[in-house]
Design goal:
Blueprint (H helix, E strand, L loop, with lengths): L2 H8 L17 H17 L4 H8 L3 H8 L7 H10 L4 H16 L1
């Protein structure tokens, strides 16, 4: 290998925006488990869906899609939902894991 080709191989490749064609990050089972977790915690606390959406700063229709597992929220939205439910994201994720385990049995 010559000096020039070594130098070229050592150069950083440019970062391409987005994800590769055909790749998706949506996981329906995970989205449904997360939505069920949000719904369970919301019901446990006696909060209406519209109120939760307002507390989280999220549109009510979007909250409905999250609870039905039709949409996977962003990390920022997950933090907002947890705060609105007056729990940590760890509690929300633990409830999501419980929902996953329950669906596997």
């Amino acid at each position: 290998m010559s000096f020039d080709s070594t130098l070229l191989s050592m150069q950083k490749r440019s970062v391409q925006p987005g994800r590769p064609a055909g790749v998706t990050t949506f996981d329906a089972d995970l989205a449904q488990a997360f939505g069920a977790a949000v719904r369970a915690l919301r019901m446990e606390r006696g909060i209406a869906q519209e109120s939760l959406a307002h507390l989280a700063g999220i549109e009510r229709s979007h909250m409905g899609k999250v609870e039905r597992g039709e949409h996977m929220p962003t990390l920022a939205a997950i933090f907002k939902i947890a705060r609105a439910l007056d729990c940590s994201t760890a509690v929300l994720m633990a409830e999501t894991e419980s929902q996953i385990a329950a669906s596997e049995t």
